[in-house]
Design goal:
Jelly Rolls, eight-stranded mixed beta sheet, single chain, GH, signal, 47 strands, Immunoglobulin-like, hydrolase activity, hydrolyzing O-glycosyl compounds, alpha+beta, 16% helix, eight-stranded antiparallel beta sheet
Length: 894
């Protein structure tokens, strides 16, 4: 077995000279030299990179200077030896970064399909810092070469040294309760979650004050599953509640994880390590049995986030949480713990407080031995902090309180991490886990509690009350029912048996109750009415894959009848309809599924060990569907708008249709005129917000051919799906993994603001971000999750989006101009009030603009707080005046 790989140190000890990069492999774009053992791997991308070996304080390090990046990544790798084995490993290195880029690192296959076995996104700081992760590889692909891969997704200079990959032991961990608290008297704690399609108050309820006293001596949490729900995969009559990540367990010891339950229900308690279930325990509860401990035993044998899941139907009460060594179970109730919860109320429960409102938190604390007081401390992204200390009762009874936190006025907006810690007489923390919450202080949205049909801001979000509240609170006023919400309108979900239709009118009403306007999607087909009946081989079923119901209908007439049924039923609630989804992508537009790709296949996409095949001319087939929807609107008498074309900026990976080719074909067919708006999708890999950026290039690939064909755009453009990044960092936690650094949070919020601003600057009438509907706890971290955490809480980047929507709502894009040193100002105005979004060029580290004093114009930072000169992140200037007046003011800045 390879006992240790100390890669850069090993390379430095070699007698071989540094490896000179062959520029011919990249048409001259990549130059320089790499330390021995490292290989350059960016020739396939449009990346201009220069590598040098530098020395500082007697230490060699690798410098990677990404000077320009048009598509793909700068990437380089170190090949692992053939006898590299599965097991638990630690990857560590020292790094610093100047510029705006994220570093993807981990273990990856060298050859296709280039699968990552372990991957982590890192945002190094400007000064040297250490990255270290322990991970477990349970198995390796047989006969496949592997490498440590490094990828940079933006223009930046990365310095890298001391790269090590060594066998690792799991950490010693805690020998107390691995849950951070013993009871749930104040409801679900921070980072706990439940399945994203179950709406609280409708499908599931959580009751704290229920007149009961549980085994912990505290009120238990009552959870009632009132009804099942159709998800975007299948119908589920059981809800799954997922815990926050447990504290680090003692390695190699047999542990137990569970809780006291009572009620009338059956279900299962499970323990997960990442996405893998490592223990499970079925249970059945009867009212006459009273409280019953349900627990599963396991031995931590691999690195990863540990969580506990409770899946059940019916009603149960939950209390006395314990995970850890079985012999310590009896001590858990005698030890202290603390609970922290937001003030009750719709927005507060969603982790939101509007500017000008008091920030209140509820707390319950059972005093630990030696504890004298409880400190509640709130810290924001800038490091500003406020705290209060509350003495414990002298009799060591339970402390209950509701605190008002006086936040500083200067930098009040944005996320605040609120933490409660028990302290001893000397002010030091006692041996009790700290608990935390994140409170997001947001500007009150312009259309809070009101419809906003002309708003450009849209989102994908599930029809559940908590997330609909979040979406509206951050300024999103439209929702597209794709993935999140597709179960309400999708044909495959509504006619599950021939002739038997089942509608969820309450789900549609829930969106409208929160004043979200709707872009419905007329999509999917039941297997018995689609080409699925003729599939060459059995395909991944709906339970396994969201793509399976996208086999095209056998009959366009039947598809039209389905559309008319939906439009007639919901025409008064849904303002616009999208036709199907992504016809240029065979995953969502297919007529067959095969295990072996035919030699003459033109349009295909690999999935699940096989291949989906699309029609040879998907544009023509899609236009048939578009005409059916147009006719259905006419037949129903509805005034709903129909979106057409549904194109992309894509370059045609695998058997996908390139966006330019698809748009050209749709224009030739007349589809761009035979609709009310033209829709397109784009997903980014790099920072935007400057002339010729990835958004502008994508817009030209997707929309340019239509404009060229007609001489002008025949219809407005709606951007209906996309994201500025994948695999976002998680929440603003200090003790709950995986957490995120402050720079990662600023970076994520900045990318969201840049993306939306650039799209509006290109002329998009509406922008639907994707997606707030992709969270299911820490077992399945969806890379397309946006604006929410893995637990479904509001992500700190959503506060930046909320600030953007509040200052741009009601204003139209006017122009873009350069100001200061390589800062790009996007000006929006309604004629009376104007706003500039200032985006420093990410390729220029000296980009800056400094405002002149003004009573007319107010400058603010990414979250709406005091302006920071020289910041690499988005900032804003807003005030009363025309676009021309604002332009003149901006030009006065330095």
């Amino acid at each position: 077995m390879v006992r240790i790989l100390s890669l850069l140190l090993l390379a430095a000890a070699c007698t071989a000279a540094a490896l000179t990069v062959d520029p011919a492999l990249s048409e001259g774009r990549v130059t320089g030299e790499l330390l021995p053992g490292w290989r350059e791997n960016s020739g396939w991308a449009k990346a201009w990179v220069h590598y040098t070996v530098e020395r500082e304080n007697g230490r060699e390090f690798q410098r990677i200077d990404v000077r320009r990046l048009e598509n793909g990544y700068c990437q380089f790798d170190f090949r692992l030896p053939p006898d590299f084995e599965a097991g638990t490993w630690r990857l560590s290195f020292r790094a610093r970064l100047q510029g705006r880029a994220r570093l993807n690192t981990g273990i990856r296959m060298v050859n296709a399909p280039f699968r990552w076995l372990f991957k982590e996104a890192v945002s190094p700081e400007q000064e040297w810092g250490t990255f270290s992760r322990v991970f477990t590889l349970r198995s390796l692909p047989k006969g496949e070469p592997l490498s440590i891969f490094m990828q940079l997704n933006g223009t930046a200079t990365l310095d890298l040294r001391d790269v090590e990959l060594v066998p690792a032991e799991l950490e010693a961990g805690e020998d107390g309760n691995l849950f951070r608290q013993h009871s749930l008297a104040l409801g679900l704690p921070a980072a706990w979650s439940w399945q994203n399609c179950f709406s609280e108050g409708d499908h599931v309820t959580f009751s704290e004050e229920n007149g009961e006293v549980g085994p912990s001596g505290m009120p238990p949490l009552k959870i009632e599953v009132r009804s099942g729900v159709m998800t975007s995969y299948d119908y589920r009559d059981s809800v799954t509640v997922c815990s926050a990540p447990l504290l680090t367990p003692p390695a190699g010891r047999r542990l137990t994880a569970g809780m006291m339950l009572k009620g009338a229900t059956s279900g299962e308690l499970a323990v997960r390590c990442g996405s893998r279930m490592i223990a499970r325990r079925p249970f059945e509860l009867k009212p006459e049995e009273g409280w019953k401990r349900v627990a599963a035993e396991f031995i931590p044998s691999q690195a990863g986030i540990l969580t506990v899941e409770l899946t059940f139907r019916g009603t149960l009460w939950c209390d006395a949480l314990y995970a850890g060594l079985p012999e310590r179970l009896a001590e858990a109730a005698r030890e202290g713990w603390t609970e922290l919860a937001p003030e009750k109320g719709k927005t507060a429960a969603a982790g939101i407080v509007f500017a000008g409102e008091p920030v209140r938190v509820r707390l319950l604390s059972k005093t630990a031995p030696g504890a004298k007081e409880l400190e509640v401390k709130a810290v924001n992204l800038y490091g500003d902090a406020v705290s209060r200390r509350i003495p414990f009762p002298g009799d060591r009874s339970v402390l209950r309180n509701t605190l008002t936190l006086e936040l500083p006025a200067a930098r009040r907006l944005g996320p605040w991490q609120v933490e409660a810690i028990q302290l001893d007489v000397s002010g030091k923390p006692v041996d009790v886990p700290a608990v935390e919450r994140v409170v997001n202080v947001l500007p009150r949205p312009v259309y809070w509690g009101k419809d906003a049909p002309d708003s450009p801001f849209g989102i994908h979000v599930q029809p559940v009350n908590r997330h609909l509240t979040m979406a509206k609170a951050i300024g999103a006023n439209w929702a597209r029912l794709h993935d999140a919400g597709v179960q309400l309108l999708g044909w495959a979900y509504l006619e599950r048996k021939p002739g038997e239709w089942s509608f969820d009118d309450d789900g549609v009403r829930r969106y409208r109750k929160h004043h979200l306007k709707l872009l419905g999607e007329l999509t999917t087909a039941p297997s018995f009415r689609s080409h699925a009946v003729n599939s060459s081989v059995p395909y991944p079923t709906l339970r396994q894959s969201v793509t399976s119901p996208y086999f095209l209908p056998l009959s366009m007439r039947e598809y039209g009848e389905y559309c008319e049924r939906i439009i007639t039923r919901y025409g008064g609630s849904i303002d616009a309809f999208d036709v199907w989804n992504e016809p240029w992508l065979p995953l969502f537009f297919h007529i067959d599924y095969v295990k072996k790709l035919p030699g003459n296949a033109r349009r295909w996409a690999s999935f699940g060990g096989g291949f989906y095949l699309s029609p040879d001319d998907p544009a023509a087939e899609f236009y048939k569907m578009q005409r059916q929807v147009r006719q259905a609107v006419r037949n129903s008498g509805s005034r709903a708008r129909v979106l057409g074309v549904n194109t992309t900026d894509g370059l045609g990976h695998e058997g996908r249709v390139p966006g330019r080719e698809f748009s050209q074909r749709m224009a030739e067919l007349g589809a761009a005129e035979d609709c009310d708006a033209i829709s397109y999708h784009q997903y980014l890999t790099r920072l935007v917000g400057f002339p010729g950026d990835e958004v502008e290039q994508g817009y030209e690939r997707a929309i340019g051919p239509i404009r060229e064909h007609h001489g002008k755009l025949p219809r407005p453009v709606w951007f209906t799906e996309g994201s500025p990044l994948n695999e976002p960092c998680d929440g603003f936690y200090r003790t709950i993994p995986p957490g995120a650094s402050r720079s990662e949070i600023f970076d994520t919020g900045d990318r969201v603001v840049r993306f939306v601003t650039a799209l509006l600057g290109c002329g998009a009438e509406k922008v639907f971000l994707y997606s707030m509907g992709l969270h299911n706890g820490y077992g399945t971290l969806n890379p397309h999750r946006l604006l929410i955490t893995a637990a479904g809480e509001l992500h700190p980047s959503a506060a930046a989006y909320a600030n953007l929507t509040s200052v741009l709502e009601g204003k139209a894009f006017v122009r873009r101009l350069p100001v200061g040193i390589l800062v790009h100002a996007y000006i929006f105005s309604d004629g009376r009030r104007s706003t500039a979004v200032l985006l420093p060029d990410p390729a220029c580290r000296e980009a800056a603009w400094k405002p002149e004093p003004s009573e007319q114009w107010h400058a603010s930072d990414l979250f709406g707080n005091a302006f920071v000169a020289g910041s690499p992140y988005a900032s804003f200037v807003t005030g009363t005046g025309s676009a021309d007046e604002l332009e003149n003011y901006l030009k006065q800045g330095k």
